[in-house]
Amino acid sequence: MNVRLLRSDDAELAARAIRQIKPPGERQGDTTLRDMERFLDARDVLFAVAVDGEPVGYAVAYALLRVDGGPPMILLYEVMVASGHRRRGVGRALVACVVEAAKAEEAGSMWVLADGDNAAAVALYTSCGACRRVPDQSLFVWSPIRLLS
């Protein structure tokens, strides 16, 4: 298995990974090659893919710049592994790839949101060295985004 970060010239591989791994009901629409090129070309995007003949997993993270000039934080946004390849170290290898990229970005921290009852996610992030779980935090969501009146 090969795990690496992708850039805009890898757009076709990234789009194929999303189409093959992310369930259709969880996608917002079709991933076009142009959209994927633009996405991968963004400086703050980290997109890792695991390939074993075909894509078997991917991770998306974002480098968040800080207003106070401190080191960026990395938001690990999504880790997806094809159902037939789970519990084989794919997710762990993807997170490790993002961690290495975070070190290269000289990030100060990395964080991820996960449902507390998602045992697979909790086990993955704990096994990958997440040092603590933050209790009693609330997530607020604007979806769809509407103007305040």
Account of the protein in words:
Helices cover 30% and strands 24% of the residues. The chain is built from four helices and five strands. It has helices at 11-21, 33-41, 90-104, 119-127; strands spanning 2-5, 45-52, 54-64, 73-81, 109-112. A five-stranded mixed sheet has the order 1-2-3-4-5, sandwiched between helices. It is globular. The termini are far apart. The mean pLDDT is 92.
Q: What structural keywords apply?
A:
alpha+beta, 24% strand, 149 residues, single chain, 30% helix, five-stranded mixed beta sheet, Aminopeptidase, globular
Inertia-based shape: globular
The overall pLDDT average reads 92
Q: Based on helices, strands and strand pairing, what is the structural class?
A: alpha+beta
Poorly predicted spans: none
Q: Topology as H/E string?
A: EHHEEEHEH
Report how far the terminal alpha carbons are from each other: 52 Å
Strand order of the largest sheet: 1-2-3-4-5
Instruction: Kindly report the CATH topology.
Output: Aminopeptidase
CATH superfamily: Gcn5-related N-acetyltransferase (GNAT)
The number of domains is: 1
Can you count the beta strands? 5
Percentage of residues assigned to helices: 25-40%
Radius of gyration: 16 Å
Main sheet: strands, sense, barrel: 5 strands, mixed
The helix tally amounts to 4
Beta-strand level of the residues, as a percent range?
A: 15-25%
What's the CATH class, please? Alpha Beta
CATH architecture, please?
3-Layer(aba) Sandwich
